[in-house]
Amino acid sequence: MQMTLAEKILARASGKSFVKAGDIVFCKPDTAMIHDLLGPVIFADDFKELGGKIKHPERVVVIADHSAPPATVEQANMVKKTREWAWGNNVGEFYQFKGACHQLLVDGGHISPGNLVVGTDSHTCTAGALGAFGTDVGSTEMLGVLLTGEIWLRVPESILVNWVGEFSLGVMAKDAALKTIGKVGHGGATYMAVEFGGSLIRNLPLDERLVFTNMAVEMGAKTGLIKPDEKVGDFLDSIGKNDGEYFISDDNAAYREVLEFDATKLTPTLAAPHEVDNVYPVTDYEGQVLDQCYIGSCTGGRLTDFASAAKILKGRKVSKKVRCLIVPASEKVWREASKLGYLDILAEAGCVISAPACGACGGFTNGVLGDGERCISSSNRNFIGRMGSKKAEVFLASPMTVAASAIAGMITDPRNFL
User: Fold this and answer.
1) What is the pTM of this model?
2) Which of 135, 138, 260, 298 has its CA 20 to 30 A from that of 336?
3) Are 108 and 254 within one domain?
4) Contacting residues for 411 by C-beta, under 8 A, at least 6 apart
């Protein structure tokens, strides 16, 4: 019987030899990730009342990243409660101010191919770039996972998204991810698994693959997935964590829909306010004046992103009319980008280098927007109030487009500087 990648992973997690879309299965997650915003600050009292004992503490990863470093007393108290709960319950790993949760799960070897990963953050689907089924859960659902070591899930239908060809000058994974979302729509893949394939995906580095799976939830997807291959294996070998099961979809697996895209036809792309599927070529908005340019977050703050931004900004200066913020996705990314000289190039151009964290992506710290301000960002959402004021506007684009726009002080096609 034929199965998709998503079905195979959930079959393994539920101890079954076969599952199909629509089945209800009880699964044992391999990793449970909790962050400061939707963790102990919400469920600590209920956890204690229901027995206060984690079934598998070694599988639990707690991360303080949304309020990192704290900008208010309320945030400081949130981090304090998160830290004390994590230490008091001997969880497998606790990260404090080390970066965004999804990147830390990758860097720390907490994701293996074939795993089921649940997390209290909507972009837990990022894990799919390593061939794992990553999905978000609410704080109450996470409480159940902690106490029982299990969760029930409905096996999702799958959509196959094939990208072929190669990127042209000035185009990155973020452009292709936005193009996909524009086609599918913000709810077009609700509770489905979006599997990304094709020659383009196979040829991309892991950094760029992570962008596709991270953004899958912006189509409403339950998870985003990419077939694990030698690039995943090489990365896991480099951190000494190469285990798991390298599942792939069967040749005749059933997909709800198959979409085909040609990367050679793609130009620099953006999402205009206030929806991620409000997608246009960058040239349609070229000349829009900006206040802030933001390169960072779990979507656009990796080594490849900073290398691409540095390529454009080297020897040039950020316009005096804007501020350009750089927020590495993790401490590891920070160190590698610093070692390779990317951070020096960005700083010399006039960018402000901030702490590895979620930063202004969710409107918490390090660069929130004021009334009437306009930002172009490499992050993942541009909803009203997402990065601060409800009267601000956020455009989403690739790190190359953000870097080019920082030079011009307005939305600009990166090919102008390449």
Assistant:
1) 0.96
2) 135
3) yes
4) 270, 282, 285, 286, 287, 288, 290, 376, 395, 397, 401, 405
The amino acid at 197: G
What CA–CA distances, in Å, run from 142 to 43, 93, 147, 266? 9, 16, 9, 40
| In a domain? residue 60 | yes
Find the radius of gyration of the CA atoms of the chain: 20
CATH number at residue 368: 3.30.499.10
Alpha helices in 255-350, H assignment, sequence order: 297-300, 303-313, 331-339, 342-348
User: Last residue of a domain, which of 238, 260, 282?
Assistant: 260
CB 271 within 8 A of CB 396: yes
CB 20, CB 155: distance < 8 Å: yes
Same-domain status, 215 and 316:
no
Q: Which residue has the tokens 């590698």?
A: 336
Question: By residue range, what is the domain housing residue 392?
Answer: 271-417
Distance between CA atoms of residues 63 and 91, nearest Å: 11
- Residue 135 tokens, joined: 């999905």
Specify the number of domains making up the chain. Answer: 2
Backbone angles phi, psi at 252, to 5 degrees: -105, 25
- Token pair 């102990």 is found at 40
Contact 254, 386 (CB under 8 A): no
Q: Which two tokens stand for residue 226?
A: 């990419």
Pull the structure tokens for residue 28.
């044992």
User: Does a structural domain hold residue 279?
Assistant: yes
How confident is the model at residue 228, as a pLDDT?
97
Write down the pLDDT at residue 365.
Answer: 83
- pLDDT tens track for 127-166: 999 999 999 999 999 999 999 999 999 999 999 999 999 9
Residues 302 and 403 in one domain: yes
